[in-house]
Amino acid sequence: NALILVLICAAVLAALLGAWLDSAVIMAVVVINTAIGLFQEGKAERALESIRSMLAPQAYVLRDGERTHCDAAEVVPGDVVLLQSGDRVPADVRLIDLRTCQVDEAILTGESVPVEKRLDAVAEDAELGDRLSMAYSGTVVAGGTARGVVVATGGRTEIGRISEMLADVQQIKTPLLQKMDAFGKGLSVIIIAVAVAMFFVGFLAWDETFLEMILASVSLIVAAIPEGLPPIMTIILALGVQRMARRNAIVRRLPAVETLGSVTVICSDKTGTLTRNEMTLRTVRLRHEQFEIEGVGYDPHGGFLLDGQAADAEAHPRLARILRAGLLCNDSALRSRDGQWTIEGDPTEGALIVGAAKAGFEQRREAERRPRRDAIPFESDHRFMATLHHDHEGFNIIYVKGAPDRLFEMCRSELDSDEHDSDEHNGDEHHSFDRAWWEERVEEIAARGQRTLGIAYRIMDKTHDHLDFEDVEGGLVWLGLLGIIDPPREDAIRSVSDCHAAGIVVKIITGDHAGTAKAIAAEMNIGEGKSAITGRELDPLDDEALASKSIECDVFARCSPEHKLRLVEALQRRRYIVAVTGDGVNDAPALKRADIGVAMGQKGSDAAKQASDMVLADDNFTSVGRAVEEGRTIYDNLRKALVYILPTSGGQALTVFMAVAFGLTLPLHPVHVLWVNMVTAVTLSLSLAFEPKENDVMARPPRPPDTPLITPLLLWRIVFVSILLVTGTFGHFYYVHEILERSIEVARTSAVNTLVAGQVFYLFNCRKMIKPSWTLEGFAGNRTVWVAIGILIVIQWGFTYWGPAQALFESTPIGADGWMRIFAFCAALYLIVELEKTAMRWRGLTSFE
């Protein structure tokens, strides 16, 4: 931080000149500011270590024909690895044998549900999520068993490649730090130039001694440097961190708090961030009816809609039948713990249980009415599950669920639409199965981003007590289609709308399928009317073409970690301030590169958390919107602190410069300057950190990224108020010392109190930058302001009337007439600034941008 370096140099220079008090106070500012920043930011990130911790610690391999247990680090290419449910895959393996193997690849691809693995070869250029014959290091076997040949270990694996990418990613400075650096360097150059000019004016034009002019130059440097700015900036950010923590946003790097306020694009992962990561039955398609199901997630409450009107499941026997079939042909269970509904088992099966519960079916009761006698478990080879049940009337019935195209081959007829007969054993009317018509329905449901599942049944005679493949390979009766989706969070939909209103573009970048991503985007009003772009379509684009696509498109699917990183860099090259949200290892490089990386706290990987600047404790996109609001408020308060502190330093510096330029006595010693800077910083300036948010904070467009910290209008305000302050301070000093012929101590004490009192009144001007501050809100909207003023009055009374302070600062009591002059000046200062604000509003100005 350039200002910190300037302060250290000023402290060293003051010490060399024997001004030990000045030097000690400046160094105290440096130490306090550094301590606060270190305490808030904590330890450095450990993203690479967290990735290594995700690798499987142990593995089972076949060596010399025998099953062997070894450390994962000892697995080498060519080993045959044995995998079973619950295992973490120790390396990248090509599967050669499996039985109903499903792998959770969310950390790499963002898939909502475990991926069903197959042995068939895939195209060489297939996307990572489509390589069904591979299992990748760090992923978890969700069900079944498999064996595979190790093809890559360590840095050659997909997760190792991400680790290397993460090490190469350069973390950029936040916009605030960039602007503060530029501001500090520019201010340092100006201060040094003015001090040098003043030195030569006094030394050559007024024949002052070399030592006197060195001391005068030090006085100007100390006066011009806003010593209170670094600690106030840190405190404002730290208070923002605390407020955001109460709103479920935990900030890991202090300057990132403000960055949220300048975000122009949010690139969000889909699964678990915008969606609930809870599969939900949304559509039931029968021959002549299509039902939509209300409610989201695993909460078993919600109704049914038919043609947009509420429908009673009991009044539609065919609907009840397909829901009951999905409930019974099921190995999962719905549980309630502490008011939270969860699924034990496969999420897709859980969606069927919840859908049936919404129709009034209870899993245990249905299992007692129709107990299971036998089952064919789901396996990737045959892509269906079948169960055999009998009822108390002695009949046996087979229920089958699976991939629609597979069940199409197994059905010879379909149930007709007679809704008045619910007897499965007698009276069912069937007609030939119309496969072409149902394939069109599959396409319609899939186009809405829903995963489709077929349901069929078959009535068996009373003596049939076991289940064979021959029983289901033909002769099934088709019931209908189910559409399942991981639905968007309702509060996330509102938050996206709020972001749009605030001028922030929200984009989806996910590893999931394009259809699913587009469907979720449509429900959230993201990328309306635009098609989704896949990672494969991004591969051939050069940097310029990619930058154009990154702006034109809002939905990116089947994206690898490289795609996500390239998209973030492309947006940054176009001067966008980018926030990235994610939870998987595949998101870590983009999270680290982003201007503000936001990881999920509950379901996020350690790698994502360590690579991010902020962690959401509730995994909710809504918290991002609230954090943006907080970030904008923090930036507003920082700007108020700047426009408040800098005129004080400017007024003091001008006072010293004018005294030297006109050959007059210095009205302020360096110790007076430091006194004023510190007492106002720890009281008046700090109170601005507690300013409430402006009413229009989320109605404004984002600040342009190239907006300087000090805009021309802000510079005008700073110079204008500096001139007012120097007029009052220097004028009062000159009037008391030259006109009233009082002692230099009385004149300097009057000057110091004039400067401090002027800042008290100017504080109220700063609470509203453009709007009038003579309202009730302007005077009473921040109680901390009055507390700070009360503390300052006590401190300044001690400066003026307390013996030890008088001895230290060479101050002396002043009379009632002096206080009346000070009050008159302060009232005039307040009114003049309010008139200047009125003139700005007449010109149509609403902000200082």
Question: Which terms would index this structure?
Answer:
849 residues; alpha+beta; eleven-stranded mixed sheet; eight-stranded mixed sheet; 28 strands; elongated
Any overview of this molecule?
By secondary structure, this protein is of the alpha+beta class. Helices cover 48% and strands 18% of the residues. The chain has 30 helices and 28 strands. Strands 10, 11, 12, 13, 16, 17, 18, 19, 20, 21 and 22 form an eleven-stranded mixed beta sheet that branches. The protein has an eight-stranded mixed beta sheet with strand order 8-28-27-26-9-23-25-24, with helices on both faces. Strands 1, 2, 3, 4, 5, 6 and 7 form a seven-stranded antiparallel beta sheet that branches. A hairpin with a 2-residue loop joins strand 1 and strand 2. Helix 3 packs antiparallel against helix 5. It is elongated. The chain starts with a helix and ends in a 7-residue tail after the last helix. About 3% of the residues have low confidence.
Describe what is shown at a glance.
Helix content is 48%, strand content 18%. It contains 30 helices and 28 strands.
Give the helices and strands, then pairings.
Blueprint: H1 2-16, H2 20-41, H3 47-53, E1 58-63, E2 66-71, E3 80-84, E4 92-104, H4 106-109, E5 115-116, E6 134-135, E7 140-152, H5 158-168, H6 175-205, H7 210-224, H8 229-245, E8 249-251, H9 256-259, E9 265-268, E10 280-285, E11 290-293, E12 304-306, E13 309-311, H10 317-328, E14 333-337, E15 340-344, H11 347-358, H12 363-369, E16 372-376, E17 384-390, E18 396-402, H13 404-410, E19 411-415, E20 430-432, H14 435-447, E21 451-460, H15 469-472, E22 476-485, H16 490-501, E23 505-509, H17 514-523, E24 533-534, H18 535-538, H19 543-552, E25 555-557, H20 561-573, E26 578-582, H21 588-593, E27 596-600, H22 606-611, E28 614-616, H23 621-661, H24 670-687, H25 712-739, H26 744-767, H27 776-780, H28 783-801, H29 803-809, H30 816-842
Parallel strand pairs: 9-23, 9-26, 19-22, 23-25, 24-25, 26-27, 27-28
Antiparallel strand pairs: 1-2, 1-3, 3-7, 4-5, 4-6, 4-7, 8-28, 10-11, 10-22, 11-12, 12-13, 14-15, 16-17, 17-18, 18-21, 19-20, 21-22
Helix pairs in contact: 1-2, 2-8, 3-5, 6-7, 7-23, 7-24, 8-23, 8-24, 10-11, 16-23, 19-20, 23-24, 23-25, 23-26, 24-26, 24-28, 25-26, 25-30, 26-28, 26-30, 28-29
